[in-house]
Amino acid sequence: MTPNMIWAFMVPLMAFAIFRRVRSTFGRQPIRRQRMMTRIVFLAVILCVFGFSGLHNPRLLEGLLGGAMVGALFGFVGLRLTRFERDASGNDLYIPNPWIGGILTVLLVGRLAWRLFVSMPQLQDPAMAHATPAMGNSPLTLAIFGLIFGYYISYFIGLLVHHRRFERAQPAT
How do the domains of the chain map onto residue ranges? Predict the structure, then answer.
């Protein structure tokens, strides 16, 4: 697979992921316990894979773990700003704070766009056509990935805990 084919596949996939992320940042969201638990496990596995791949370079690992710790703090702040509701049909909903999700999305998109901009000359040079630029070879990029992963892991864990408390506080129907 040539680098252009890789980018032709990755750019739409990343655009779709960012669209879904933005859509889940605003407005009422249904609480889906199983989906949240699956996301926690999936994000933790990806965080561990990035961590193991960063063992050869301590700066990468420091960026990832530092970002994950700051992301966990953002997750707890976001959880404090989240509201819980029950709609007319009895479904439990949460309303996330749009500012935190928006800031994290802008950071992620901005960093990915910058890395793409920096690696574009390498992609256009025929002599470098065989070498694909590594998106994760920067401590700052891994710090932002860690920030996103740490945020969502702590936020979803907190949502599950607070949702259980919310359910107990609601009158029985």
Answer: 33-169
Yes or no: say if 29 and 95 are a contact pair by the CB < 8 Å rule.
Answer: yes
DSSP symbol at 88: T
Closest CA relative to residue 117, chosen from 105, 129, 128, 133? 133
Give the pLDDT confidence of 76-103 residue by residue, as tens digits: 999 999 988 888 888 888 988 888 888 8
Residues 64, 142 contacting (CB under 8 angstroms) = yes
DSSP, residue by residue, 7-32:
HHHHHHHHHHHHHHHHHTTSS-EE--
**Spatial distance between the Cα atoms of 20 and 28, rounded to a whole number of angstroms:** 14
Task: Tell me if the pTM is above 0.85.
Answer: no
